[in-house]
Amino acid sequence: MADAVLGATVVEDREAAVASRRRLISRIVIYGLLGLISVVYIVPLLVVVLNSFRTNAEIGAMGLISLPQSFRLDAWPQAWSDFCIGGQCNGVARYFWNSVAMVVPATIISTALGAINGYILSKWKFPGSEIVFGCMLLGVFMPGQIALLPWAFLLGKLGLANSVYGLVLVHCIQGLSFTTLFFRNYYVSIPDDLLKAARIDGAGFWRIFWKIMIPLSPPIIIVTVIWQFTGIWNEYLFGVVLNSGSNQPITSALVALSMSGTTVRTYDVMSAAVLIGALPPLLVYFFGGKYFVRGLTQGAIK
Amino acid sequence: MASLTIRNLRKSFGVVEVLKGVDLEANTGEFIALVGPSGCGKSTLLAMIAGLETVTSGEIYIGDRLVNSVQPKDRDIAMVFQSYALYPTMSVKENMAFGMESRGVPKAEQEKTIARVAALLQIEPFLKRKPGQLSGGQRQRVAMGRALVRDPALFLFDEPLSNLDAKLRVDMRTEIKKLHQRIGKTTIYVTHDQVEAMTLASRIAVMHQGEVQQFADPDTVYNRPANTFVAGFMGSPSMNFIDAEITSTGGGAPAVNFPLSGGGVASLPLHNGVADRAQSKKVILGIRPEHLSRQSASNSGKQGFATMSALVEVVEPTGAETMAVLKFGDREVVGRFSPDEAPKTGENMPLAVDMTRACLFDPATTRLI
Ligand SMILES: Nc1ncnc2c1ncn2[C@@H]1O[C@H](COP(=O)(O)OP(=O)(O)OP(=O)(O)O)[C@@H](O)[C@H]1O
Ligand SMILES: [Mg+2]
């Protein structure tokens, strides 16, 4: 009797040991793979960051990918104000500010319009509002380049060709499908009773929007702002095609890096310039990333 | 004076007619309950009174003003929702102030009103909290508070207690009754709980499939239900329905007969002229569970009581009373007995039936005879 019990525990122990070893192996495999993928993602960024602090001579001698022998900050101010792109030697500063002047109003306006659209399409439905929503949804799936030529034509007519304001308009409209979808889907989960109560309480369209919907919206506002900001900042096709010279956003101007091929390549300064162009979305990611994930998964009312 | 008058009100959603000609009125200070099974159109009717749903046809008067096309905010009403619908980002106090702010009530007056209502409902301790930090019962109070800070002509309640647990529901029911007695406002109260309707209302409108089946005081609705639907809906356990036939026995005194198991026939004498009103011999006999009792010296010879016996199938004690399922022929009938006279399973129980309280219905129309 006692033997049998003892035997059973021994078997159990052995099984437990096998199971835990198997678990360990699968952990190692998972972490190994994850580590490998992270390296693949991180290495290019690391190379660029390191190169921005190395001298050009050193990069020339040791190759693009190697550990730095020196540490130098000179490339950064050069990239900012002296670097030559497309025949102009004023650095990327001007393009950087173009991007800022484009992304800030475009993000604010497209988010605000998305909120209002979403509010109407979820809470003030009218005959045909589902069709309107369906059409807006189409915009989510339409590649931006389809609209390139129409935009060029329209901006010309409006007198906004080759101007940052033109790009603001383009990005407001191009982004509207997404922002409307985000807000509409978020607002659908807010109970209608809340609005009925507010209507009996004497609140109208705008008072309900400001006092009830907006205070419930921070998660989706954060998601939309991050989405729009990074999307508009990183976009370069419209900037390249619609604008030229000193009116381009920084991403479009950096395209010229690959074309100014006659002179000696200044890898250190180029690295710094690229990083300056990438910095805002990276900062947004570092400071807003967790809110982005939280906002995507969280409903309006806990 | 009538606070609310509804005439031939209809509502269709597309081709579906949800309300089919509703008539209703509430006198000033009255407490009207709208009861009916799920989907019968109670909430729709209330939403139309509130102005949250459009009127397909018919008229709604609040006071003597036709309000068919008046905005909700201008109807002089306040409403409490089943979901409470408290504004989640506002504190309790802000929730109560929201409507007054919308209407431009001066700040000082807002403060005074909130203080008064908060004291009335005993919600002062959590005026600063958000709805998410309150229990279900506390939220319910706040929802009532938000309605009470107005001084409306009409209070509308849509199943305000149905999200509370059983015990709290009974407590809040009493509180609502007290509150109504204190402030005496005309109230329309939707519920599908017939006990709530019976205990609170001065008149009950029983609805079914978009029609008001009966609109009367609780006593009439319970004891003289207009048809088998009302009879079956009000009261728990439900009234028992037995297909029966009217006959005149020996001396001409009418009785209702129905077959019993084993070939016998039960013959229960009828009283005061009901039999004359019947259109046909066939009727539906309605007997409430509590009108069955064990035969005893005190009831067997009594005027209006009929005697019979029936087999006991199931016995369900609940503590205060005992339910028993009895066999009347091939029908099952529920009886409600006090524990000391409760039957045992398998017993052939001698019964006394209170025929003065029995109802007869016309099988063709299901109406009360
Ligand atoms: N917006 C609408 N569109 C179409 N049909 C609707 C709409 N609102 C309600 N109905 C229908 O009208 C009928 C009555 O609904 P209502 O909400 O008034 O029922 P109720 O009596 O309040 O039921 P419950 O006790 O479940 O709350 C239901 O059959 C419902 O499906
Ligand atoms: Mg309802």
Automatic annotation (TrEMBL), chain B:
Domain ABC transporter intervals: 4-234
Organism: Devosia insulae DS-56
Topology within the bilayer: Peripheral membrane protein
GO MF annotation list: ABC-type transporter activity; ATP binding; ATP hydrolysis activity
Record-linked InterPro entries: AAA+_ATPase, ABC_transporter-like_ATP-bd, ABC_transporter-like_CS, ABC_transpr_MalK-like, ABC_transpr_MalK/UgpC-like, Mo/tungstate-bd_C_term_dom, NA-bd_OB-fold, OB_MalK-like
Family named by the database record: Belongs to the ABC transporter superfamily.
CDD domains per record: ABC_MalK_N
UniProt-listed PANTHER family: ABC TRANSPORTER ATP-BINDING PROTEIN, MALTODEXTRIN IMPORT ATP-BINDING PROTEIN MSMX
UniProt record, GO biological process: carbohydrate transport
An annotated GO cellular component: ATP-binding cassette (ABC) transporter complex, substrate-binding subunit-containing
Subcellular compartments: Cell inner membrane
Primary location group: membrane
Any one Pfam family match given in the protein's UniProt record, by short name: ABC_tran
PROSITE patterns xrefs: ABC_TRANSPORTER_1 (PS00211), ABC_TRANSPORTER_2 (PS50893)
The entry's keywords: ATP-binding, Nucleotide-binding, Transport
Protein name: Sugar ABC transporter ATP-binding protein
